[in-house]
C-alpha cells in the first residue's frame, strides 16, 4: 500500500435515512423516503428504513466503533425533517439535540464531524409543494442550513451541502426508482438547477454563521467509456452527451459558473424555460473549499437507436470480464485515477482540493470479505496514482461504516465495514474493518 501524506484524512460515511431509524420519534416529520417505501413494489421485499440500524438510539456504540477504527473524520447526514418537520418554520428541538449529542460524542472520541445537509430525505411537506422542481425548495434549504449552522457551527467546521445531486435528479425525478418516485425523464432537469441553487444559498448561510467554515459538495462522478466495438462518430457523440449530463451538468456551474450547452448534445436548452434566473450562477459558483467525489465505477455507453427515442445515448455493459460486486457493478480501480486526472485536466486551477467522500462495495453478508479488502486497497492505490500526477486529494471516506438500508434494494446489499444483523441490530466488525484499522495506524506510524 502506498504512503499518504501525514495530514491525509481517513474517514467513513453514512446517511441519516439509511441508518438512523426512529422514523417517527421525537417530533420527526415525514420524508419522501418514509412515503416512498410504503408504495407497493418500490423497495425490494417491502423493506423500510423505519428502524434501519437504530443509530438514533445506538450512536454511542457506533462512535465507539469509529474510535476503535481510528477514524480522523466521520461523514454523516442530517435528517432535514428531523430538524424542521415540515421543511421550514418551526424547528424540532429534540432533533437538534440528537445531532448535538452526536457531534459532542465524535469530538470526545477525537473524530471530526463532517455533516452532509441533504442526502435525499427531503421533507414530504416540501415535496407536496413540488419538491426540487419548485424553486422555493432551494430557499428553504438555505434556511435549514442556517438553522443547523447556528446550532452546530461552534464545533463543526467542515460541511457538505448536497450528496449526489445527479443521482437524486435522475433516480428520484427522472426514472422514478428512488423517492419521490417521479418518472419525468429530461423534464426533471430543473431539479438539477434547484439543487445547485440550494447549495449556493446554503453555502452563504453556512459562511455567515461559521466564518471559518469549509464548504464542499459531494458529486457522484463517473468516467465515460466506449466498448471497442462502439467507435463510430455517433458513439462518440453519445459518450459526450452522457458525460455532459452526469458530470459536467453538476461540475461546470460550480467550477466555471456556467452550464454546458445541453442542446448541442440533443437535450433541452440549459435555460430550461426560464428556470435559470439572473444571479443564480453567481450564487452557485461561490468558491468551494473542496469538491467531494463519490466513485463506484465507470459508465459504458453506445449510440442510441437512430433516430433516438428519449435520451441521446444507451447504457452498455463492458466487454472486459471485470470482477463484480454483489450489486453487479464492475470493479475498476483505474477508473478512479482516470476520473481524478480527468477533472484536473478539465478544470485546472479551478479544481479545489478533492475529497473522496464515498467509495466502497457491496459484498455478501458475513465477516469473511477478502473481496472488500481488495476493492478498498485497489481504489486507494488508484488515488495515490492520481496524487502522483498532481491531483490534490485531501481525504478518503469509505462507504460505509455500517451495513444499512440501501434505498430501493432494502437490506439486500451489504456495504459495511461492520456487519449489522437486522433482526437484533448486533454490530460485528468484518475483516475489512480490521484491515482498514491497521492501514490507518500504519499510515500514522
Give your account of this protein's structure:
InterPro entries: GH (IPR017853), GH_1_N_CS (IPR033132), Glyco_hydro_1 (IPR001360), Glyco_hydro_1_beta-glucosidase (IPR017736). There is one protein chain. This protein is α/β, with parallel strands linked by helices. It has a single domain, classed as TIM Barrel (Alpha-Beta Barrel). The chain is 39% helix and 14% strand. The chain has helices at 16-19, 32-36, 55-69, 80-83, 93-108, 124-127, 135-152, 165-174, 189-209, 233-256, 280-284, 334-347, 370-388, 431-444; strands at residues 9-13, 73-77, 112-118, 158-163, 214-220, 224-225, 290-294, 299-302, 314-316, 354-358, 393-399, 418-420, 427-429. Helix 13 links the parallel strand 10 and strand 11. Helix 12 (334-347) runs parallel beside helix 13. The relative contact order is 0.14.
Could you provide a short overview of the structure?
By secondary structure, the chain is of the alpha/beta class. The protein has 14 helices and 13 strands.
- CATH top level label: Alpha Beta
Helix content: 25-40%
What is the strand content?
5-15%
Task: Report strand order across the widest sheet.
Answer: 1-2-3-4-5-7-10-11
Structural class: alpha/beta
Q: What average pLDDT do the residues reach? A: 96
CATH topology: TIM Barrel
Number of folding domains? 1
Q: What is the makeup of the main sheet?
A: 8 strands, parallel, barrel
Global outline: globular
Distance from N terminus to C terminus (CA atoms, Å) equals 14 Å
- Please compute the radius of gyration using only Cα atoms: 21 Å
